[in-house]
Amino acid sequence: MSGATHSNDVDQTGATDRTPADRADVCVVGSGPAGALVADRLADAGHDVVVLEAGPRVPPEERLARMERHQRPGYDSAWGMGGDRDAYASSGDVDYPLNNTRVKGVGGTTLHWIGYTPRLHPKDFEMESRYGLARDWPLSYEDVRPYYADAETELGVAGAEDNPFAPPREAEFPMEAFPPSYSDSILGEACEELDIDVHSVPQARNSEAYDGRSECVGYGTCLPVCPSGAKYDASVHVRRAEENGARVIDRVPVQRLEHGADGERVEAAVYATPDGTEHRQEARQFVVACGAIETPRLLLLSRSEQYPDGLANSSGAVGRYLMDHMLYIVSGQVMNPTGQHQVGFSTSVTHQFYDHEEPTPGSFFVGFLNYAGPSPVEVGLEDGRWGDDLPAALGEAYGGHIGTEALVEQLPRADSRVTLDDSQTDDHGNPVPDVHWTVGDHGLATAEKALDVQRDIMAEAGARVGYETPVDRPLSGSHPMGTTRMGTDPAESVVDTRLRTHDLANLSVASSSVFPTGGAMNPTLTIAALSLKAADAIDADL
Amino acid sequence: MTGVLTAVRVALSHGIRASNIYVFCRKSKDLSVACRNYLVMKLTRRDAVAALAVVGIGGGAVAYTQLDGSGDGTGSGADGSGATDGSNDGAGDPDGSDGTDGTVASSALLATSVALADVVYPAEVEGREAFVRTYVSRRIETDDARRTGMADAVATLDARAREHHDAPFRDLSADDGDALLRELGMQSVTPDPEGSALERVRFYLVNELLYALLTSPKGGALVDIENPPGHPGGLDAYQQGPQA
User: Fold this and answer.
1) In chain A, which stretches have pLDDT less than 50?
2) Which residue on chain A is closest to B225 by alpha carbon?
3) Within this chain, domains A1-133+228-324+412-438+481-542 and A159-201+326-408+440-473 share the same CATH topology
4) Smallest Cβ distance to A181: which of B181, B211, B238?
5) Chain A residues with CB inside 8 Å of B1's CB?
6) Is A351 one of the annotated active-site residues of the chain?
7) For every residue of A414-452, which 3-state class applies, written as one string?
8) Which residues in chain B touch residue A214, judged by CB atoms under 8 angstroms apart?
9) How close B154 comes to chain A (CA, Å)?
10) What is the residue-wise DSSP string for A197-260?
11) Tens of pLDDT along A311-362?
12) Cβ contacts of B63 on chain A, cutoff 8 Å
């Protein structure tokens, strides 16, 4: 990717060509990590691939300006989310801040993700058989394990085998882990007193030069912008897919999928260009890779006479079983400076509480923050003091902050779901998604235990707690999952183990939306692993 | 704040020269990195080049070209070699007067920025003029929208300065400049690039200069850190404690 537009999309007048490709083996909807990896693999295998992305291309040279937009008050969000294009409703027990959790652009939400890449544990695939909860995955950890290793290589994961609680692996991480922070040493000592084992954090961030990208140079603004490119984002695989001949068209939100007369195959993706013109992209295979909110929305928008409840929704499961990871932060201050905000990612975590004997409380992990409290830049620009009063303003707000975060498992529930809100429309006149997120008793009981552990660690560290997320008002982990779940029974699931929909023979879904349960681990590595698995299956069909 | 740093600040406030304190601390072998940065808080053009790299200007920025796959994957920080010193300030109006067409000339914009830095930067931060001239001139060199925004903000500031002190802002003493900002209520004005005239002053001038300072290592030293957010200062600082 050399600029705003890939050369094969620009005609002789310099205008971007957003007309459909004459022939496509595969049409991929969405260019986040799932879509990008599928596109890259299939293009590399020699197939004609077209990727349709709702958002714009993001030239690398814009990233410093986006970092500035993030750091300076007075700007809107770094990635321009919001407005009519991204309108939504939130009607659940807990507010769902959808546009804080996603990015529409070439590279998708990995443009702003923080980059953690743990694997799910074997128990996450076996919740029903082990605990009588929810449903088992139709895949085991061993089925996904080789794809995890593949995904770690593709994304470039820095990690260490210092985690006594991690599931079995087959090879070393591609890069060395990032060393712990000074702040980690304070919380680490507390954990040692509490007999809690602490270890490194696997993350798709270069601790050394990797795959032609820089090592991390410490901008400290990983979430939402990594200016150096040391943090993996899916534009890496978009670029590689294009080098392998894939065509990527930006700013073309897909309006609906249209199926053939027999209802067994998708014929075309109908997309809209920025001027509102609609086009049909035909292909032999279609892959919907739009995340766990827009994927079910697109299927629901594609309802037809044959599929009155939405495409691929004969089970009624499309949009249901929405899960997220419940995020709890406990933060405060210790007496001495802790050096926060000198990197934008965590370097120590404990997975000691992840595996459990009894069904409830379930899984969670606790990570240590390297970005607790306000950043000094944020304080200096917002406080309103200047000159010789500035050091005091900074010193009052910044110094001894320290904090922990916990990601907590919730179970899938049919009433936690994404539907269409017909009372509101987006910039193309389509009903917006209504995100109805509920967390349930299992999640709340697990959160209570997580908060207890966090409080114990903070107390042992001598920290005065200044903020604690209320147990019944969790923050979103920004990891929506479950809304087109995988299963073997077409009556209660949407896709099979190949991630192909039960209803349509040439329609696959690559997304966290296929997760039957979500565990408590950050989902992107699992999304990547399943996407590579889906690519293998589609390649075999072409 | 560490005890050493606090003691240093007290000494500075009593008029003891920073260089003398620095020598004393070196002899005492009890000098944190942050104290060292604090005591030698003289901004240079090199600091301006680093600040410019943070906003994507100049050769010192981390090579984002690596993102297009053309790089060898070896990054360099904002203090890397090859950066120009920005000594050409791009000012095309040497007499420092306002433009005759009602716009603010580059030289007036630069002079106002320097005068404003004398107000909004702590007095202990030395070398303000070269830093600000280099930073601002390069910042507006190829960014017409920012140049316009800053020039309009200078015009607003000058108009208010003339009302209150019968002189443009750049001719005010630091004390009068400080008083004017307070009279304007600038401490509680919301920065907004598309807001009211005063909101644009806060955004395009006050916060512009503070952003340049606070994303530099010298700005980080104000809070005892070496690598503030926005500065690509590498991976050592976060691992070090305050007494490293």
Assistant:
1) 1-7
2) A339
3) no
4) B238
5) 337, 395, 399
6) no
7) CCCEEEEEEEEECCCCCEEEEEECCCHHHHHHHHHHHHH
8) 62-63, 66, 71, 73-75
9) 18
10) --B---BSB-SS-BTTBPPP---S-TTT--TTS-B--THHHHHHHHHTT-EEE-S--EEEEEE-
11) 999 999 999 999 999 999 999 999 999 999 999 999 999 999 999 999 999 9
12) 214
Closest to A483 in 3D by CA, of A493, A498, A497? A493
Tell me which chain A residues have a C-beta less than 8 angstroms from the C-beta of B120: 386-387, 390
Spatial contact of A208 and A230, defined as CB atoms under 8 Å apart:
no
Give Cα A73 to chain centroid, integer Å. 26
Q: What is the CB neighbour count within 10 angstroms for residue B9? A: 17
> Which two tokens mark A239?
């670029």
Tokens at residue A64, please? 């410093």
The listed CATH number (3.50.50.60, 3.40.1190.10, 2.60.40.10, 3.40.1110.10) that belongs to domain A1-133+228-324+412-438+481-542: 3.50.50.60
Structure confidence by residue, pLDDT tens digits, A80-116: 999 999 999 999 989 999 999 999 999 999 999 999 9
Judging contacts by C-beta atoms under 8 Å, the chain B residues touching residue A69 are: none
Give the residue from B12, B57, B126, B238 with the most A CB atoms within 10 Å of its CB, the best one to mutate: B238
pLDDT, one tens digit per residue, over B50-71 is: 999 999 998 544 444 344 444 4
Backbone dihedral angles phi then psi of residue A468, each to the nearest 5 degrees: -145, 125
List chain A domain ranges. Answer: 1-133+228-324+412-438+481-542, 159-201+326-408+440-473
Task: Return the residue of A nearest to B119 by Cα.
Answer: A387
Contact between A341 and B206 using a beta-carbon 8 Å cutoff = no
Give the nearest chain B residue to A240 (CA atoms): B69
Share of chain A above pLDDT 90, in %: 95
Question: Are A380 and B214 an interchain contact pair (Cβ–Cβ within 8 Å)?
Answer: yes
Residue B20 reports pLDDT greater than 60: no
Cβ <8 Å between A180 and B239: yes
A429 has a chain B CB within 8 A of its CB:
no
* pTM of the predicted protein model: 0.90
Contact B214 A381 (CB under 8 A): yes
CATH topology of domain A159-201+326-408+440-473: Cholesterol Oxidase; domain 2 (3.30.410)
